[in-house]
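Deliverable D4.2, example record:
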Amino acid sequence: MKRPLITLLSVGLVLWMAAMARAEVSSVTKIGNDVIVSEGVTVKNATAIGGQVTVDGTVQEDAVAIGGSVVLGSSAVVAGDCISIGGVIVRGRGADVRGDLIEINSAQLTTAVSTVLTEDWEGWSWVFAILSICIFFMILVIALITVTLMPKPFETIATAIRRHTFRAFLWGLLVTIIVVPLAVLLAVSVIGIVLIPLEIIVVVCGVLMGFIALARLVGRGVFLRLRKREPRLLWATFWGLLILWILGWLPYIGPIIKVLAVVIGLGGVVMTRFGTYPLDSGIR
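Output generated by the structure prediction step:
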């Protein structure tokens, strides 16, 4: 009687261990470091941001490198797509890729720009892409400088946005609606005309501060989910801006995301009086 019971328990234990081993197959995501899937290792997704993805094992879905290359060894198996943004895809002989190979690097961008500036005038969308990249880097430089010099106002604005998101949206929407009528009213008088440039400067500064604070909040949230620890202020701001910029390129919903980010950020600035009036203490 004991032997069938022991046999049954052994079979159950083996099945349970097999199920647990299967459940342990998870995704690997690293920021600022390389992702290496060794031979004999199976992962769901392999993603590196600011690093290289090297695959000698099995990736059940996608292998993605943003700001790095994807290197596939001869024993690599990728069931999904291989994507490299800012790098190259190196595929060894025998590597099995069942999805698409997507590679976006500076050489391709240079070719596209030269095409636009020569004969393919239908490619003017690339001009706007280049302008978007330039604006992104300009905002990034401004953000890193201002966050370094005066971090407290941005933390105050981010706290207000996180804890009072809908309220920030309403304030931002109100300010956005009254900007143009206010400029028209100022244009009626001589003194008001002089104040119009001041209004523009205040609004632009408010939009920039709010957008940067919201980006800092987004970057912090993503970083905490991926790395499970508090990021540095500069890192959170950088990755938040990058994420918002990438989301802005999504068809249809990209412009909506940008507008919402601007409106909510501006509302946070108004609620906190440019980060000088904390509604709550702390950002946790």
